[in-house]
């Protein structure tokens, strides 16, 4: 957790349609769907329903009937990193995909239709960090924030902010707000006058086995209890619970190794 992220939102805030450039969804591709659903169901209280069949075996996680995240089955012949992927909203995924290429990134998947849910693409920024683009139709994205088990924040962990901020500005039109510090390389991406994501330059502190990557934070009512439960359910604590300027936070990994953070935000 950095000390420079924005607020997670109000308790129980519900969303209708997300503005272009705003993070709108998170998803995870795994090898063991059943085990993964059991883990997150116990940890976050998620229930599940089938996802769009056009995307292969998948499920949507629900909290009180609101969609909050997606989990998909990775093809058995693929051995990609297991990681949470954030999606940014777009009014035209084809046009946004072209912007990704024009700004020096790569489009790895799509654009393609997900039935009547919407249209998507998966991109890589110039440093190799993976993100998604979502053009909503029937599926608008994350339906509720600010309660236990909901996405609270996303943050790009990369070598330095300067090498990548222009990419996200060019693709999504984000504004920037740097953190003024001699020893802390951090920028928040802005949309509509509010912080929507962070970019944290960690220099040589970047994990060699992961490279630049997006980290998803989930809101929980009790960070210490959640971190303890992660280990009980077969996951791992990578950074123990500690206090930050925005609340108590811990970084953990699920049984397949997907890294995420849990936070109880100060409001």
UniProtKB/TrEMBL annotation:
Coiled-coil region(s): none
User: Where on the tree of life does the source sit, at the highest rank?
Assistant: Bacteria
Q: Where is the VOC domain?
A: 22-136, 150-265
Q: Note the InterPro entries from the entry.
A: Anthracycline_SecMetBiosynth, Glyas_Bleomycin-R_OHBP_Dase, Glyoxalase_6, VOC_core
The name on file for this protein is: VOC family protein
Q: Which organism is it from?
A: Streptomyces fagopyri
């Amino acid at each position: 957790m950095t000390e420079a992220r924005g607020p997670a939102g109000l308790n129980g805030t519900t969303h209708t349609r997300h503005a272009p450039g705003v993070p709108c969804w998170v998803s995870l591709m795994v090898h063991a769907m059943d085990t993964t659903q059991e883990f997150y169901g116990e940890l976050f209280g998620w229930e599940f329903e089938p996802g769009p069949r056009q995307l292969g075996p998948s499920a949507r996680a629900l909290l009180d009937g609101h969609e909050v995240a997606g989990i998909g089955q990775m093809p058995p012949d693929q051995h990609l990193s297991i990681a949470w992927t954030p999606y940014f909203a777009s009014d035209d995924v084809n046009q946004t995909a072209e912007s990704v290429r024009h700004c020096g990134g790569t489009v790895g998947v799509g654009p393609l239709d997900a039935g009547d849910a919407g249209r998507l693409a998966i991109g890589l920024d110039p440093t190799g960090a993976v993100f998604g683009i979502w053009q909503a139709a029937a599926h608008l994205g994350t339906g509720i924030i600010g309660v236990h088990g909901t996405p609270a924040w996303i943050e790009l962990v990369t070598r330095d902010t300067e090498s990548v901020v222009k990419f996200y500005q060019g693709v999504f039109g984000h504004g920037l707000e740097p953190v003024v510090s001699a020893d802390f390389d951090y920028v928040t991406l802005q949309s509509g006058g509010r912080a929507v994501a962070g970019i944290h330059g960690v220099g040589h502190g970047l994990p060699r086995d992961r490279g630049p990557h997006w980290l998803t934070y989930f809101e929980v009512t009790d960070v210490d209890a959640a971190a303890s439960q992660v280990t009980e359910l077969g996951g791992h604590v990578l950074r123990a619970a500690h206090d930050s300027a925005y609340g108590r936070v811990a970084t953990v990994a699920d049984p397949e190794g997907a890294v995420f953070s849990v936070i109880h935000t100060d409001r």
